[in-house]
Amino acid sequence: MKTAIAFLTLLLSSSYLFAESSTSQESEEVEATLIAMWDAIEKGDLDRYASYVHPDFTTFGENDVYLASGKDLEVRGIADYLKRATNVHTEMHQPRVKVVGQVAWITYYWTDSGEIAGKRFSSRGKSTRIFVREDGNWLCIHGHYTAVP
Predict the structure, then answer these.
(1) Structure pTM?
(2) Residue 6 exposed, middle or buried by CB count within 10 Å (0-12, 13-18, 19+)
(3) How are beta strands 53-61 and 137-147 bridged, if at all?
C-alpha cells in the first residue's frame, strides 16, 4: 500500500509539473537569452557570454566523440574561436521554446557567417539548447548542435 501511495504521489506531482505551461514571456526570455549570447560573441565580450553559461554546462555536436563539460571549457573554446573568427553573425530560424518549471529548452535552425583568416564562411544547422532558471536568470546548461548541408 505504501508503494502504491508513493507512486500515486509521484505521479500526481509529476503531472502537475508537466501540466505547468510556459508563458509567452518566459519563452521570449529564453529566446532573448540565446540571442544575447550570440550578441556577446559577435562583440567579442567573453565576460558577458560567460554570464549566460551555467557552471555545469555540457555540449556536443555530431562529430564529437565525447561530451564537453564545464563552463570554463566552453568559455575557453569561444575565446579560441574569437581569436580566429571575425565579423561573426548568427541568426535563429523557427525557434520553439518549452518551459517546464525552472527548465526550458529551445529547438531552432541557425545560420551564421563571418571570416576566418580573411576568408568568408557561412554555415547552417539545427540545435537544441537547455536552460535553467537560477536567481531569475536563464542560464544555458546544455547545447547540442548539428550542421546541415
Answers:
(1) 0.83
(2) exposed
(3) parallel
